[in-house]
Structures are given as structure tokens and as C-alpha cells.
Amino acid sequence: MRGAVMYGPGDVRVEERETPRMIEPTDAIIRVSAACVCGSDLWPYRGVETMQWPAPMGHEYAGIVEDVGTDVQTIKPGQFVVGSFWATDNTCEICQAGYQSACVDRVPMGALGAQAELLRVPLADGTLVATPDIPSDDLIPSLLSASDVLGTGWFGAVAAEAGPGKTVAVVGDGAVGLLAVLAAKQLGAERIIAMSRHDSRQRLAREYGATDIVEQRGDDGVAAIKELTNGLGAHSVVEAVGTQESMNQAIHATRPGGHVGFVGVAHGVAIDGMDLFWSLAHLHGGPAPVRRFLPELIDLIWNRHIHPGKVFDLELPLDEAADGYRAMDQREAIKVLLRP
Ligand SMILES: [Zn+2]
Fold it and tell me: Rounded to the nearest whole angstrom, what is the distance from the C-alpha of residue 328 to the centroid of ligand 1?
């Protein structure tokens, strides 16, 4: 079986990997229809985060079930399924409360390597959601996006309490930020401010529902958002980057009593206690419990109410995964879809 493996910073190879096989009776094996490169894959690619090399890559996936273990009850061979980047039981107390990404039995899908032809999915009943039928090809990018970036952007918007009458600002114009714009629109936000200085990303943000674009960053970006909100700041701010600058920007752009939803994987971020004290903001975020939203998101995609797959602006055969990493690293592509 072919699969992408990272050997070190900047070094991704697609090579023959051991074919995954059933280990637990709760497992499923799926044939991956589409996988992709995540913004978070760029942290090790850039050497910011270290891994145990060589590491199989990829945690976003959609595909057809090939086989299921003897204890799997709801998922059947032949179904098209989407799962989150955590395999989860979906039955423990934490899952039931809607925080599947902190499931007591969770297994990180990244360790199993979804940028591959075949994938073992643990806890299949709790992890996978089947579509009503086999999707037409044009729906596959959108369904794949639900596996992570759409679900993460959605959680960011929910955590920031985006909704009717609210002004929502989104820090970050990567796939997650753009899909947080889409989510804010779906959740009924009145005004959506996208922070972006890239033409093509601004266009997609507007298509997804952004009413205003702010190009400035840092304190200037905060000042621009204040100016658009009568000096008050936004009700809801989604932080979708994970740097010190983006987190500061998010907290400072939020009005007193407002909410920050932070979903960028934080790297070197420290929050000043006094700064937070005076902000009077609510902070909620972390690894998105994508599984909570999957049934609803799949339904919206299936009925063509939303088109999150547009964030994939480059599609490559799996064998060219290295080019996909390079394109995302150089910001030549927003997000790269890989077809095994
Ligand atoms: Zn659980």
C-alpha cells in the first residue's frame, strides 16, 4: 500500500507502507477516496515541531468501508464514511457532553497515517459517520473537509458564540479561518469580518459570507475592527492561527463580555494574566470535537447548502504529496487534496 511518510523537516516521501489490518474487533478498514495536507502538518514540516521520524502522515480522510471488526454494529462495508482526526467511542461522559476530541478512549488518527490508500479506523461505530449513499465525485472535497477544517472552523465559531445579531471577526485566512467565516454565516451572524491580505482568500471569504475585510495585522488590525464596531470590538472572535500575535489580536479585538473561540494549534503562545483580566472576554477553544458536528455538516453538504470543498485549491495524486506540502508551505495553495 502507498502512503505518505515524513522523514524530517521538508522531507515527505510516498512509499510502500505495510497494509493496515484489523487489530481490534471495533476497527474498520477504509479505502481512502481522498485525504489532504493539514495546516498542522506544516509545523513538523517546518521543523517547529518534532516527531518520531519516519512518521506516517495525514489525519483527514473520507472513503469507502472495506471491512469491519466483529463488534462493529452501525458501520457496514460498502458505505462511504467521514471521520474525525480523533477516533472516539462517542459514548463516554466527555463524548456525550460534546467534547469527543477529549474522549477517554481517544486514538489520534495522525499516528495511523491517513495520506494513504488504506486506513485502519479504531472505534469505528463512534468515529465514523456514513453518508446517505455513495456521493458523486464533486461532493468528495466538501465531505473530506468535514473531517477536520470545516469541523474545526465550525467549532471555532460555536466556541466564539457566533449567532444572530452578532459581529464575528475571524483571525486567520487559512482553510480553518475561511470555514469559520462559512460557519458564522450558517449560524446566523449579522456581520462577519475576515482578516486577510490575500486576494484569492478574500474572495473566498466574501463568497462564504464575510461582509468586511481587514488587511491590517496586530494592533492595527485590532484598531480596524474597533473602528468597524463603534469602538467596542466584535462580539465573537475566532482565532485560527495559533501564534502569539494572532491570539493577542483575537483577545484585543473582542468586546467586554464577548467570546474568543481559539482553534489554531498554539505554538509559543503565552497569555498575559492582567491583559486577560481587563479584557472581560470569555476564552474557549482547543482541538475541535469535530464528531459532534459531523452529522449536521454532512447533511448540509449532502443537500448542497454549503460548499466547504472550495478551500481545496490544489488537487494532486497521492504520489505527489511532497509537492502538496511544498505548495502549502509556500502559501501557493490554501489546502491540498490528495487522491490515492
Ligand atoms: Zn468518549
Answer: 33
